[in-house]
Amino acid sequence: MDQSQTPVIGVAIIEDQRETREGLSFLINNTNRFECRHAYASMEAALEGIGANPPRVALVDIGLPGLSGIDGVRILRERYPAIAPVLLTVYKDDDRIFQAVCAGACGYLLKKTPPARLLEAVKEIAEGGAVMSPEVAIRVVELFRRTQTPEEFSPSLSPQEMRLLKLLTQGHQNKTAAAELGISVHTVSFHLRSIYEKLHVHSRSEAVARALREGLIH
């Protein structure tokens, strides 16, 4: 696609620290094909105004005053399913990571993430992917392996889908998974839709959580 026809990625920032909020807004607005459509200091304000010119991706701080980022993400997913929320935080403890995945967050990035990687992650999220800082992805896998309670659950995943699912639990994104499997990114997206349908989930984070909880991946 010609660059002039590439759609602009709309982003919202929900962050109570003014310096961080303004820094992220500046980064996004001064990067080609990105646009900061909203910047809020609280989740309450975001839920009230984000529906006007809704963004594709929302960067959400966990430690917000009032309604927390995690609780807010649950509501955001219910009200605006087309908006993909990403938790951007300093926290990497197991409890918050577990809650974020269960809330339906499409990503969990640490605030120390370099600007270039953050923009790349936003683009991946906008294209239907999911992202996690590498150290967070490792903790997610270990967390669900410790807490999984296997049940009678036997989805008819193909061998290729199982291989892709395992790569997802290792933190791979569409491009890297495609390279590992020797297939196109388009084919990865096709398999992802099939996996979501068979696991009865709606996002990559939910698919990873269910695969680990049900013991599908070892």
TL;DR?
By secondary structure, the chain is of the alpha/beta class. The chain has 10 helices and 6 strands.
What do you see in this structure?
The structure is a single chain. With 218 residues, the protein is an alpha/beta fold. It has two domains: 3-138, Response regulator (Rossmann fold, 3-Layer(aba) Sandwich), CATH 3.40.50.2300; 148-213, Orthogonal Bundle (Arc Repressor Mutant, subunit A), CATH 1.10.10. It contains ten helices and six strands. It has helices at 18-29, 43-49, 69-79, 94-103, 115-126, 134-147, 159-169, 174-181, 185-199, 204-213; strands at 9-14, 34-40, 57-60, 84-89, 107-110, 131-132. Strands 2-1-3-4-5-6 form a six-stranded parallel β-sheet, sandwiched between helices. Helix 5 (115-126) links the parallel strand 5 (107-110) and strand 6 (131-132). Helix 3 packs parallel to helix 4, helix 6 runs parallel beside helix 10 and helix 8 crosses helix 9. The longest helix has 15 residues, at 185-199. The protein is globular and about 45 Å long. It starts with 8 loop residues before the first strand and ends in a 5-residue tail after the last helix.
